[in-house]
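Honest question from a wet-lab person: if I give you the sequences of every part of a complex, can you actually get the arrangement of the whole thing, not just the pieces? Trying it with mine:
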Amino acid sequence: MQNRIRAVVFGVGTMNSIATRLLLEKDVDIVGALARSDEKVGKDLGIVAGLDRQLGILIERDARALFERTKPDIAVIAVNSYLEDAQDQLMACAEHGVNVVTLSEEALFPWKTSPKITAEIDALAKKTGATITGTGHQDTYWVNIVAMMMGSCHRIDSVNGTVSWNVDDYGPEVVSLQQVGTTPEQFGEWLASASRPPTFGRNVVDALVADVGLTVVTQTTETRPDIAARPIRSRSTGVEYSPGTVIGFTDVDQVVTEEGITITYQMSGRVYDPHEYDVNEWEINGEPDFSLSNGKVPTQISTCAHLVNRIPDVINAEPGFITIEKLPRLRFRAFPLHTYVK
Amino acid sequence: MQNRIRAVVFGVGTMNSIATRLLLEKDVDIVGALARSDEKVGKDLGIVAGLDRQLGILIERDARALFERTKPDIAVIAVNSYLEDAQDQLMACAEHGVNVVTLSEEALFPWKTSPKITAEIDALAKKTGATITGTGHQDTYWVNIVAMMMGSCHRIDSVNGTVSWNVDDYGPEVVSLQQVGTTPEQFGEWLASASRPPTFGRNVVDALVADVGLTVVTQTTETRPDIAARPIRSRSTGVEYSPGTVIGFTDVDQVVTEEGITITYQMSGRVYDPHEYDVNEWEINGEPDFSLSNGKVPTQISTCAHLVNRIPDVINAEPGFITIEKLPRLRFRAFPLHTYVK
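Yes, you can. This is the full assembly:
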C-alpha cells in the first residue's frame, strides 16, 4: 500500500483556503503551510483558511526550512500568476525534490513565454526527482476538453473559444493584475509598457497547440480593456467603480498553424455585474463541426479541485517541468488521494 | 519511420462508405474490403462506397482468405451492433492477429453484457498479438468527455446524460433493430421476450463506470417506445409511418454505486422529424456542479472519424479485447495516420 500523501499548502489566500479543505477531505496529510504576510504567519492554518477549527499547523514563512524539516511529497502553490514572480518558490521546491501543483496561470505552459526560467526549473527538478506542473480549471476546460473534441474530428479549419472569469473570485492580487479601477488612459499606458504577456490566453493556446502537436506560423494577442457601463461593485476590493472605469480586460489570442488550423481564444477576466456568470463556449469548424457550452461555469472551485485531483498524476509523472499535455487524462478521485499513486 | 498502415474495410454500408474516404484522406492503404451481399461482392470498393472512382479493390466475402493473403494491420468493422452477431468476424481477426476497430455498440464495453464471448476473443487476441477495440461517437461524447468532467469535480452525487441519435443515419439494419414500424403491442412483446439488453446505453454506462473506477450496487434499464405523434417519413426505409407507430425507442439506464454516485443515462434512437437533431447534454451534481451541451451533434460523421482516429491507439495498445478506458485520450490526427504509430 502506498503511504498517505504529505502536502505543504504554499500560500493561504482565497484559493488555497478552499484547497486546504479539499485536501483534508481527500485524506491528504497537510504537514505545513507557507504565507508571506504578518497577519498569517504564526497563525493556525485551519483558522486562516476559514475551517473554524485548528489543524495544529502553524503557518511559516521560510519554504526551504519547512521542506528541510518535513520532507513533503507535494507543495500546493496558490500565490501568483507569472513565472517570474513564482521562480523562487518553484526553485525552492525543485531544490528539495518536492513535487509541485501550482495554479500559476503562466505555469500551465511556460515554455514559450518564459523559456529560460522554465528550463532552469526543469533542469533542477530533473536532478532532484521533482515534478512541477501548472494546472487549474484551464487544464480540463480550456485545453483538454477542446483537444479531446478536436480528436473526434477528421479535419479542422478553425477552433474558436470564448471564456470568462470573475476577477472577484481570486483575491486582491488578481484584481490588481487585471488593472481593475484604472482609467482607460492608465490602461493604455500599462499595456504599451508591459514587459510580459498581459494575460494567460497565450499560455492556454500554447498548451493546446502543444497537446495537439501543431506548428505555429503566426501568433497574435490583442488586449482591450473592459469598461464599466454602470456603477459596479467589486466583492473583493469593496470598491464601487464608476462608469468609464476599467473593470478588467479581454484578450484575443490567435495562432495560425502550418497544418491549416486557426485557433482563436477570447478570454475576459473582469468584475461581474450580479447577473453575469463564467462561460466556456467552443466551436470547431471542420469535418464535422462541433460546439460545446458548459453553461454556468464554476471556475473557482474547479481550479481548486484540479489542484487536488492532479496530485497523483504529478507524483506519478517523470521529473521535470511537466506540462499537462504529458499527463494522463484527469480522473475523478473517489478514494483517498494516495490510492491513485503508483 | 513507421510503414504506412494496411487496412481492411469490413462491411461496406453507410458508415464504412464514409470511413473508406476518411481512411484514404489520412493516407491509409486499403488492402481489401469485405461484404456479405451479392450486390456488393465482386464490385470495386470505390464504386460501392460512393467515391465515384475505382480503387482497384474488389469486395470479397471470405475474411479469413483475405487476411491470409493480405496480412493487414487493422480491420475497420462496421457491420452490426451486438457481440453475438459480431463474434465470428472478431474471431476471424483475432485468429489472424489483425487489430480491430469496430463501431459495434456492444463492443464499447462488452465485459458485463457478453462476458463469455468477450473473454474468448480476448484470450485468442492475446495469443496472436491482436488488439480489439469498440469505438465511435460514444467513445468521446458519452464516456470520455463525461469522465473528464467528473475528473474536475471534488465530490459527485449524480451524473445525468441525455442523448439522442437519428436511426436514419445508420442504414436499414439499425432501423430494424430499433423496432421502427412496429405497433406498440409488437414492441411490448419484443421487449418482454428480448434475450439481450435491448440497447447500448448499458454498455455506455458500463464503460463510464469502468473508466472512473466505481463499483456498481444496483443497475436498472427501462425501455419505452417512441411513438409517432404525426406522420413521419424515414429517409432510410422510404416509408412514411402513421401516428401511433413505433419510430424507435428510449432507454434509461441507471447505476447506483458504492461510492454514492448515481449515473442516469437516457438515450433515444428514433426516426426524426425534420426539425430535430442529435443532442448530447450532461449534468453533474456535486462540488461543484457542471453541465455540458454539444448543441447540434454530428453523431454519424463523428463515429466514422473515431473509427479512423483511434487506429494508431489500437495498434499501439497491448493485445487483447482492449476497451476505451485503457486507451490514451484521443488526439487529432493532423498528419498521415501511420506517423502516430509507435
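Two things worth pointing out. Chain B has two domains: 6-135+310-340, 138-297. Chain B touches chain A through 51 residues (CB under 8 Å).
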